[in-house]
């Protein structure tokens, strides 16, 4: 059971964020809808209803087939064209911004729902097509279901018109940057807590080091399971690297305090509570959002694109993220009900995250006056928001780089 839960936890994000997730669910819904509508069509009440409303009856089975095939072929064309537009948008985003932001675009619910509605209409029409019978009485032609299909087709057409406008807006740099920014802020509000002084490490206590059982990116752990394991066995866990670190199988991953030996059952329980997989899910690690926006800015400043305005948009988005990060961070320790530390994890400091994101952008754009002005505006706002003056030295050092570069103009 634990293995199954770990598999679900590991693959849940990939499945839910897949471009096929909502279309698959909607297609199943439309299949069930077609079955229900056929039951209504061929029920006694449905037959009586069609007999009372003569205009609602399709007397000719061939006419019904023609309607269904025409609708299916037309909606298939809309689907192919819409998928092509999505692929073009993703390709443009990958070439001009960053491959890492593709996941935020693929996860877009509206375009998944539209594509799902198209596919559902196709499934609905094809299923109805298989039920048409050549019987002289029109009550055996699913007329009610077919008229509903016509209504769905009209909805598809209006969705397609809106979809054209929506996709053109989606590919804009400011739209992509705003989406990553909003996802990161939502993730920080979910995972972060007010920053406190760092806890004391377990340097004086004996420990056993547990190696990584697999190669991959460390994405976090199941807090409930690992905490329960620590409480039951009177253990303390210290994870040696921050989230997003790539571990090679066999390298040191975790220090375990409170035990003299590692049993196979204990190691298995620990490994089942820890996640290693590829990707950069912002909802699990908000710091991915910082780095993705930094990559967008760096890509915009590359010689092949040379778009400093987009880089400034990313800097402005990063300013808001760092404003929240000033006083909040991932918890570096987790305590039990007795206020005892049971899990300790490495959390990058504000300075480390700031330098990782801002200095690469500065390296590419230090000769651009537009970029310097964007950084100066960012520093001015962060200085105002840093009311506890904990990051004054960091901001002054970065400001010195800006003024030195400006003096050379």
From TrEMBL:
Classification lineage: Bacteria, Pseudomonadati, Bacteroidota, Sphingobacteriia, Sphingobacteriales
Parts of the chain that traverse the membrane: 20-40, 67-90, 110-132, 144-164
Keyword vocabulary terms for this entry: Membrane, Transmembrane, Transmembrane helix
Pfam name, any one: DUF2254
Annotated source species: Mucilaginibacter limnophilus
InterPro entries: DUF2254_membrane
Name assigned to this protein: DUF2254 domain-containing protein
Keyword Membrane in annotation: yes
């Amino acid at each position: 059971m634990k293995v199954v839960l770990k598999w679900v936890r590991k693959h849940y994000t990939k499945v839910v964020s897949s471009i096929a997730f909502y279309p698959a669910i909607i297609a199943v819904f439309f299949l069930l809808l077609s079955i229900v509508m056929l039951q209504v069509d061929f029920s006694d009440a449905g037959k009586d209803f069609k007999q009372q409303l003569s205009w609602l009856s399709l007397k000719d089975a061939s006419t019904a087939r023609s309607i269904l095939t025409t609708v299916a072929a037309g909606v298939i064309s809309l689907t192919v064209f819409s998928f092509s537009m999505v692929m073009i948008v993703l390709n443009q985003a990958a070439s001009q911004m960053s491959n890492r932001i593709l996941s935020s675009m693929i996860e877009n619910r509206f375009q998944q729902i539209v594509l799902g509605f198209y596919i559902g209409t196709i499934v609905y029409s094809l299923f109805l097509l298989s039920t048409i019978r050549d019987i002289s009485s029109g009550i055996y032609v699913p007329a009610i279901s077919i008229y509903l299909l016509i209504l769905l087709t009209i909805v598809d057409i209006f969705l397609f018109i809106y979809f054209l406008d929506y996709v053109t807006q989606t590919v804009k740099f400011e739209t992509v940057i705003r989406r990553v920014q909003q996802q990161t802020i939502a993730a920080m509000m979910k995972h972060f807590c007010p920053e406190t002084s760092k806890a004391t490490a377990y340097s004086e206590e004996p420990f056993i080091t547990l190696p990584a059982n697999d190669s991959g990116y460390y994405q976090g752990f199941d807090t409930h399971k690992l905490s329960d394991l620590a409480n039951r066995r009177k253990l303390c866990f210290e994870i040696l690297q921050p989230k997003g670190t790539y571990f090679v199988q066999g390298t040191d991953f975790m220090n375990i305090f409170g035990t003299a030996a590692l049993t196979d059952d204990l190691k298995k329980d620990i490994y089942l509570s820890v996640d290693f997989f590829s990707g950069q899910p912002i909802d699990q690690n908000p710091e991915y959002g910082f780095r993705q926006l930094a990559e967008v800015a760096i890509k915009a400043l590359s010689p092949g694109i040379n778009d400093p305005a987009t880089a400034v948009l990313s800097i402005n988005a990063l300013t808001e993220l760092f404003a929240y990060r000033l006083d909040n961070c991932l918890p570096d320790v987790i305590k039990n009900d007795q206020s005892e530390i049971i899990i300790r994890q490495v959390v990058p400091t504000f300075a480390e995250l700031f330098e990782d994101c801002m200095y690469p952008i500065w390296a590419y754009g230090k000769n651009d006056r537009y970029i310097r002005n964007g950084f100066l505006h960012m520093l001015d706002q962060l200085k105002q928001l840093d009311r506890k003056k904990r990051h004054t030295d960091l901001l002054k050092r970065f400001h010195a780089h800006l003024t030195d570069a400006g003096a050379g103009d």
